[in-house]
């Protein structure tokens, strides 16, 4: 027969399993502290620099222009350094292109010679044309004047028989003027460019004296022709 105390005791329930505490949230990263930039202070004027010069590496020319120092264990080829550097190479003296100096030299005196020849031909040709036409004008006009009654006013009709001579005198004047200006300008250019300086100076002088020679010859032969036409000169 069982004990009644054992029959009335209820069974003990099993204990609940332990619950793990919740994990803590990760902490937020801290903001970096602001940095303050400070400008480097300049050294006082005249103070030596704190940066040491870098040594010259082996195998390069020294800054002072010394001899080439090859690296350790390297032998220079035979004959190295016994010849001058090629033109255009580093350290070689500048050599101008052949003919560069002669390009600025005068190419001759032909410009001055041509100006002188032109001025001389123009002056002589214009003077010769003036002499021939002036004497013919004076001779024909003098005969017309001698055959007409004397008047105080000059009658231009006396030049009618010598129209060709008047035209020759005009052509000689205008052609001589144009070519004389050409010779004068060419002489000045030759003088400036030093292409026959002596010939250029002579051309300028002859071209400048051309009008004086022309009118002197014209006046002289016109007077001689009038004297011969009117009989004043016997």
The dominant shape is elongated
Rg for CA atoms = 58 Å
Question: Would you tell me the structural class of the helices and strands?
Answer: mainly alpha
Mean of residue pLDDT values: 73
User: Could you state the order of secondary-structure elements as H and E?
Assistant: HHHH
In helices, the fraction of residues equals 40-55%
Number of helices: 4
Distance between the termini: 211 Å
**What are the segments in which pLDDT stays under 50 over at least 5 consecutive residues?**
58-64, 100-104
Proportion of residues in β-strands: under 5%
Q: What kind of sheet is the major sheet?
A: none
Number of strands: 0
Explain how this protein is built.
The protein has 234 residues and is mainly α. It has helices spanning 4-8, 110-146, 163-192, 197-230. Helix 2 packs antiparallel against helix 3, helix 2 runs parallel beside helix 4 and helix 3 (163-192) runs antiparallel to helix 4 (197-230). The termini are far apart.
């Amino acid at each position: 027969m069982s004990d009644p105390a054992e029959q009335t005791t209820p069974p003990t329930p099993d204990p609940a399993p332990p619950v793990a505490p919740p994990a803590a949230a990760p902490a937020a990263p801290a903001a970096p502290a602001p940095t303050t930039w400070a400008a480097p202070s300049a050294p006082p004027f005249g103070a030596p620099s704190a940066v040491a010069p870098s040594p010259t590496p082996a195998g390069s020319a020294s800054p002072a222009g010394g001899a080439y120092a090859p690296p350790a264990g390297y032998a220079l080829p035979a004959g190295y350094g016994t010849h001058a550097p090629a033109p255009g190479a580093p350290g070689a003296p500048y050599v101008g292109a052949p003919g560069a100096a002669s390009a600025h030299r005068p190419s001759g005196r032909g410009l001055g010679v041509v100006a002188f020849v032109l001025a001389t031909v123009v002056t002589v040709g214009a003077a010769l044309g003036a002499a021939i036409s002036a004497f013919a004008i004076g001779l024909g006009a003098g005969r017309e004047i001698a055959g007409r009654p004397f008047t105080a006013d000059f009658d231009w009709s006396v030049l009618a028989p010598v129209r060709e001579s008047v035209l020759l005198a005009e052509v000689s004047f205008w052609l001589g003027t144009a070519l004389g200006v050409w010779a004068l300008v060419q002489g000045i250019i030759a003088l400036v460019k030093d292409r026959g300086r002596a010939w250029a100076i002579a051309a300028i002088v002859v071209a400048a004296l051309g009008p004086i020679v022309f009118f002197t010859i014209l006046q002289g032969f016109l007077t001689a022709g009038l004297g011969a036409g009117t009989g004043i000169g016997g």
